[in-house]
Amino acid sequence: MDGFESNGFTEDRCIKSGGDSVVEQICSFRNHLVKGGLQNYPLYIKTVPTENELKFHYTVHTSLDVVEEKISAVGKALVDQRELYLGLLYPTEDYKVYGYVTNTKVKFVIVVDSSNIALRDNEIRSMFRKLHNSYTDVMCNPFYNPGDLIQSKVFDNMVSGMMVQVC
Amino acid sequence: MSGDCVVGLVLSEQEEKRFSDLFSLTLTDADTTGRVAVGAKVGELFRASQLPADTLHQIMNLCGAKQLGYFGRSQFYIALKLIAAAQASLPVQLESINCELPLPQFPALKIDNEIQKGNLSQSAEIHGQVGRTISLVSSSRGIETMAGKVVSVQIYENSKCVHLLPDVIKKKGQLAGYVTELVLKQWAFAHEGSPTAGSIVYPSGQTHGNYISKPSLPHSIYTLKQPTDPEIQEDPSDDTDDPWRITEEQREYYFNQFKTLQPDMKSLISGSVAKDLFTKSKLPIRELSHIWELSDVDCDGALTLFEFCAAFHLVVARKNGYSLPATLPETLMPEYLQRSEAFPQLTHEVVLLGSHGNSAVESLAGQQQWMNWNHSEENVIAESVPTKLSASTLQQPERHFHNEKADLIRNTNARFKQVAAECQTREDTFFLPKAGCKELDCSQKRKTRPRSYSSTSAEDAIKKAEVPPTPPPRLPKTHSRASSLDLNKLFQQGNQAVKSGLTQPPPAVPPRPPTVKITPFPNKAETSNVIAEQLEKVQQPNFADFSKFSEQANKESLTDLSSRVKRPSNLGEENSSPTKDVKSRQPPIKPLRRKHQPESQGDSQEQLPRLNSTSAPDAKPHQPLQRMPSKHKKAIQTAVRKNKEVHMILVRLNGELQQQFKEVRKERIALESQLEQLRPVSQT
Known about the structure:
The complex is a heterodimer. Helix content of chain A is 33%, strand content 22%. Chain A is an alpha+beta fold. Chain A has a single domain (20-166), classed as Beta-Lactamase. In chain A, helix 2 runs antiparallel to helix 3 (153-166). The longest helix of chain A has 21 residues, at 53-73. Chain B is built from 31 helices and 2 strands. Chain B is elongated and about 155 Å long. Chain B: One of its GO terms (biological process) is endosomal transport.
């Protein structure tokens, strides 16, 4: 888990799922170097093709920081599923980042382009719920070791379905 | 259909027929116009020609299909011509199609396979005839008012054609093939007199893979059949359901495996247990993970009996080379398996029908029509077809055979669809065989025979899966290097041997006195410091006292030494020993001795005078002096001995310290040189 460097999927669409973080959307790549101690590395990434991949990489990093901050801030009720709405991080960029953390500290991050008609909160929540369910299904697989890249086709398909819906 | 004009392309009669035949193959049944070929089937056909992919792309581009976006008849024909050209080693260009070309061959295509294997002559004539036949048939599919009479007569007359039918049909699906085979065999059997009947060697390869369960056959026909499975290696993707069907033996095996893992057949096998088992199969984790995903339908992290069967079956199939499906085949679904367990054999065939469902039915229908016409024997149809149809419908074909082929077509079509639909809903047997039990027996036998192959392969695969359990522990314990054999032995003998071996080298190392004696070093340093201090202290007063007591030194030194020796003090000894050393070697230290001596002399002198104060001052000092020498000789001698010992010790100590000093100096030099090396670097 230390020094873990994973490589993105070659397809253009990427949802990033990290080590707990899942960033879905328009990001593409995902290369997340784990430094000792901070084990936030991506388990899965999927993005929709766009030019500025690196930008989304930065976004993801910053969003992870914010997520961490929020987790640590809320001392109580850690068990509750929460949703993290970050709003516009960069005024110029016009996209929104949504976060979600499970009780096992797995983080899902969805990056949505604001040019899309703003998705409602409920929709985002349902997306996260679906992600979480799929993730639990992946975990049920005894051949999946927690911390591995998620290579489940079922998960992939679900995410692709969601991406299509979003876009 | 033969009337369709192909723009700009001149085809010979054979070619035209052949091409029509092939074109018809690529049509879907839903397409009544017969104009557009299904892209996927076209692709499949082209790939069957075993030309390289670039060539195929070239051909596709040239024939104009890309421009049009679909494969019309003319495009298709052009493409076929180009394929023929390519196979004839001619350049793939439009010009080459104007040459006289042989017919394009599609070795990988089942039809051609069989034809080439040829029970029968492969003359173009036959091809043409078949083509004509089939093309007529295909067109008749769309145009149901075909003059069936003409067709049937043609076919009927040409008995040779008939034998090709199973091959043709086979492409559409085994189901069709089976039925065809049945029908044809019946027909052949019935027509024993016909010259060609005797030469029938039916392509037995219709059994795709070992997992096919054949429909029931009349017993008599069964004996004609030579069941061999030369085409087990056919691309399973053509009939994906086949390898995914679990035979009885396999099922039993899986059940037994389940029992060994989990005695209660109704409960679950946990994920970790299953993982261990399947890991033994040596499949990559990625594939095992995929298999799990497919088979754990309820996603609970554990496998029910049927999920386990499916998973095991997938593992076996994968080991046998079949690629894993993207979704779980219907025949591996737990519900299906549950049902099939309840109705072991019958559901196989029933679902065979059902699973092949619409595509097979529809494709079959087309092929079946003329097939049905072929037989003048009503019995034939009655006996063979009823495996799929109810008895009542049998009469219909017979009637229609003589009258309206179109109606027959429709009926068989409809009936078949009905049958298929019913099969899907009902599980109980659909067989209304006249041969009743016989057919069941036949079906069982049919199943056993192919299953025997399957079981061997499955057993092999399973054995493969079972064999691995033992090896894994091997690897970690062996050394990776050959040269480590000795080490192996060593390790086997035990650590002690190794330790003893290891302990040997260290002794070679220790001649580093400083490391060993580093700890004592400070002590010795301290002692040496102490000694030095003492020496220094002694030295200073020496110079002062030297002059005074130089005369009495010799005599009184002895007494002093003795008195010194008598006083048990390390300090004294240490002082005396260095003094002794000094005296023997180095002049500057001599005064020490003398200093001590004078001191002791002084002391003794003070004492003596005090003692002898009462007596005469001159005489008394002499007397004690005279006494002293005799007593003190021995004392002095022992002192000398002791001092010598101490001397030896100190000599050794000195040597060691000298060595340490040298080494430290060396280190210092090395560090200094390093520093110098680094300095210019850092400065620049």
